[in-house]
Amino acid sequence: MKVYTDASKTVLCFVCPEKQKTVIERHFYKTTNEAEYGAVLLALRHLKGDLEIVVDSQLVANQFNKLYKVRSPRMEMMLANLRSHCLRRKVTITWVERELNMAGRRIEKYEATGGNGWKN
Which pTM does this prediction carry? Predict the structure, then answer.
C-alpha cells in the first residue's frame, strides 16, 4: 500500500490514497529532518501491513536504504525506532520531488488555513 509522508517542524502528515485516509498531527521537533522521521513513524503506527512509503526527504530515504551514513546520535535513535516498526512486514521508502508528494500539499493547505477548513 502506498503512503505519502511529509513534515514541517510543527506538523506531521501522511496520505494513503488507497484507504482514502489523511492524518495530520501537531508535534514540535528541533529540526525538519527529525520531523520527517516523525511523519514516517506516524504512518507506520497508523497503518498495518506492507507499505511503500514515499518521502521528499533525501536524508530519510537514503539513511533508511543505507546509502547515507547516520552521523547524529539522535538520528540514529530515530532510525532504529523506525526500523523497529518495520519488523515482520515489508516496508520500502522512496524519495520523490516535493511537488509530487501529496502529503506536502496537505501540509501547505493545513498551514495556510491555520488548521481550519482543510478537507481530505
Answer: 0.92
